[in-house]
């Protein structure tokens, strides 16, 4: 299964060759899959629409002196979710209003000279660091500087105040248009973002486990160069975890103020975000434990111990256990809202099979003469890691199944 957000182009099933090159591949993905490319294309289109509407209102209808403030505001508040558009609009309006008001107050008190500009810059930059303004804090100074330019070019104080008030009005109009366009025109509903984040992380874990377990089944599978490579790959999972969590947050956030989420609920569609979150959280913990496991595998071992029959039998059984976990992560890498009920049952079935493999691993180790309690040998540490990995996967399967069952019982919630 190809991730729509990956750099691999989807297979072209059309009759013609289609556009060539990276741009053509990006365009095909944007038009044929519900992935990041389509979201980006929709955001560009909606931003263009919002900017055009704002310009017509500001320039043609209002005949404003500085009409560009309206389309600029509309584009700035066009975000990946309606919730972010609303919050950014409130912050942007607040920042601009504070900047303009600051210039108006100091301009009337001190006049349009250099000292006034320095005071405006000082206060605007200080206020811009106010935490509630968030990323829009820099707009306080930007608005104040534009306002100062407008103030000094006005022929009278009354004209200056009128133009400053018009700037705030244009910002209100642009933000309002931006939020309405984002709300009414293909409001972004990022249910699939949660799945894409899980897909990427789970497939990376699956690939790593699938590389490790065949080597453990071989008699000479623990060469230093190979185990060091496993450690490096396990350490690189951290950024993928961060992206998966961000995708989950975006998916959950896209529900707020979104009319499409209400429409989906009325028709029985309900995504188990609690289950998805449990999967991401568990995969995050699994990635840390896999990193710890690869460090144990990379541990230097006595040559006589490595050549022993019990040593080889232990690692062969450990490879079988990791193979069962690779099967589960592979299923997580294909998770799909439309088939979630069947997939949850399949994942739980695979977890039950992995439990049996884990029991055989633990029992075989206990019956052997391996030094399980000696920390200078990896056996005891690897068994502890195996137990924690099994617990995480079993818990995740149970939570995912519970979320599916809850959604089936309460489809309208």
What does it look like?
- The chain has 413 residues and is mainly α.
- The protein has helices spanning 21-32, 36-61, 69-76, 82-110, 114-127, 138-153, 157-184, 191-217, 224-235, 237-253, 259-266, 273-297, 303-306, 309-332, 340-367, 379-409.
- Helix 1 packs across helix 2 and helix 4 (82-110) packs antiparallel against helix 5.
- It is elongated and about 95 Å long.
- The model is unreliable at 1-19 and 266-270 (pLDDT under 50).
Radius of gyration: 29 Å
The average pLDDT value, as a whole number, equals: 83
Shape: elongated
Sheet with the most strands?
none
Structural class: mainly alpha
Low-confidence regions: 1-19, 266-270
Short account of what is shown:
The protein has 413 residues and is mainly α. 75% of the residues lie in helices and 0% in strands. The longest helix has 31 residues, at 379-409.
Ordered list of secondary-structure elements with their pairings:
Layout: H1 21-32, H2 36-61, H3 69-76, H4 82-110, H5 114-127, H6 138-153, H7 157-184, H8 191-217, H9 224-235, H10 237-253, H11 259-266, H12 273-297, H13 303-306, H14 309-332, H15 340-367, H16 379-409
Helix pairs in contact: 1-2, 2-3, 2-7, 3-7, 4-5, 4-6, 4-7, 5-6, 6-7, 8-10, 8-12, 8-14, 9-12, 10-12, 12-16, 14-15, 14-16, 15-16
């Amino acid at each position: 299964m190809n991730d729509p957000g990956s750099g691999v182009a989807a297979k072209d099933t059309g009759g013609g060759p289609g556009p060539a090159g990276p741009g053509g591949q990006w365009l095909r993905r944007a038009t044929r899959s519900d992935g990041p490319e389509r979201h980006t294309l929709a955001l560009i289109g909606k931003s263009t629409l919002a900017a055009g509407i704002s310009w017509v209102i500001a320039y043609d209808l209002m005949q404003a002196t500085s009409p560009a403030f309206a389309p600029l505001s509309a584009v700035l508040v066009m975000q990946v979710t309606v919730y972010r558009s609303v919050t950014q609009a409130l912050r942007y309006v607040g920042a601009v209003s504070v900047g303009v008001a600051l210039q108006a107050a100091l301009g009337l008190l001190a006049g349009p000279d250099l000292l006034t500009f320095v005071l405006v810059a000082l206060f605007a930059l200080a206020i811009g660091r106010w935490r509630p303004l968030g990323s829009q804090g820099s707009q306080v100074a930007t608005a104040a500087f534009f306002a100062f330019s407008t103030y000094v070019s006005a022929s009278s104080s009354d004209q200056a105040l009128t133009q400053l008030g018009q700037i705030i009005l244009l910002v209100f109009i642009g933000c309002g248009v931006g939020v309405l366009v984002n709300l009414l025109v293909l409001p972004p509903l990022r249910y699939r973002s949660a799945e894409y984040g899980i897909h990427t992380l789970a497939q990376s874990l699956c690939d790593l486990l699938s590389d490790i377990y065949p080597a453990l089944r071989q008699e000479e599978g623990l060469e230093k160069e190979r185990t060091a490579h496993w450690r490096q790959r396990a350490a690189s999972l951290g950024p993928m975890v961060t992206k998966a969590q961000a995708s989950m947050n975006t998916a959950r956030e896209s529900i707020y103020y979104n009319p499409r989420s209400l429409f989906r609920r009325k028709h029985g569609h309900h995504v188990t975000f609690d289950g998805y979150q449990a999967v991401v959280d568990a995969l995050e913990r699994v990635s840390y434990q896999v990193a710890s496991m690869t460090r144990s595998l990379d541990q230097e071992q006595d040559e006589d111990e490595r050549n022993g029959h019990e040593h080889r039998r232990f690692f062969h059984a450990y490879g079988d256990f990791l193979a069962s976990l690779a099967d589960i992560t592979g299923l997580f890498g294909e998770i799909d809202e439309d088939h979630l009920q069947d997939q949850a049952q399949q994942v739980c079935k695979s977890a039950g099979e992995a439990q049996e493999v884990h029991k055989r691993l633990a029992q075989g180790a206990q019956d052997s003469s391996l030094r399980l309690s000696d920390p200078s040998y990896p056996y005891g540490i690897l068994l502890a890691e195996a137990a924690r990995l099994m617990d995480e996967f079993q818990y995740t399967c149970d939570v995912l199944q519970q979320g599916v069952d809850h959604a089936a019982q309460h489809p309208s919630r």
